[in-house]
Amino acid sequence: MKPRETKGWRLYLNSLPAPNRVAERLQMKTLVAIFIVIGSVYAQAQVVYVGDGVTGVVTEYDNGAIGNVINTPVSALAVLGNDLFIGSPDGVSKYDATTGALIDANFISGISVTALTVSGDNLLVGIHPYFALYSALNGALFDHDFMNVGEGNEIAVTALSSNAIFASTTVTSAVGQYSIAGTLLKTNFITLSSPGGAGSLAVLGNNLFLENGSEYNASTGDLINANFDIGGQLAVSGDYLFALNGQNLVEYDITGTVISNHLLGIKPEYLAVVSVPEPSTWMMLSVGLLLGPIFVAERYRQRIGSRG
Asked: What is the pTM of this model?
């Protein structure tokens, strides 16, 4: 007997033999998931924060236009989700990366910060010559001597891949490789042509970029491109590399192609990039969530009709 359509999808499923019932449920779940995924595919806008350590100003740029301006001492920047961390000689303060609103002025206090790097839900905080490990969620200290990368007053920079940390100091002629746990793996993972350090570091995919304009394989340390014209402080967001080059903010894809180049009008020293959903994101997600159930309902109607 054909079940009445008004009694719903569950009644129809229960009327099927057990093997068919399982297969039908799986098909419907798969279809709904596909529509939701289609609806959730979105473009991300890159909102950039740059810091000027001389003037003590952190400025937001959205597609080249000035947004939020935060007046605070700055010696390092980092972003995790919607949290913007600003390092200074007094510690680390935490801001809302979308609005620029202060969340916690004393997120981490009592330290002089030379560098910040996000590692999962943790912050690697440069307190030369060490990197201390803190929680990026609540500022709790996990390990004050997490990683020793230099001597005395050497200022170090770091970058992370999925399974390694790379570090270089202002007086070395190499980039060292460390485990995610902070253990030294290789002192001279990359040998530089002269002392002075690698400058800023960034990892995009399996490529390690150095501020001096060179690109290396992040797994092997092999040179890929000795003339990747970057020029300044680096940051990665999504599939793109950002660089401060004088007064310009330049965006690259992984091949080195310039995607955008904005004149900032200032010459900042520090850089962090926030990925935020564009307005079309929510519209596309809504369409996916709407079409999924409609498609399932139509499939139900057709299945019921075929059983008549």
From this structure: 0.74
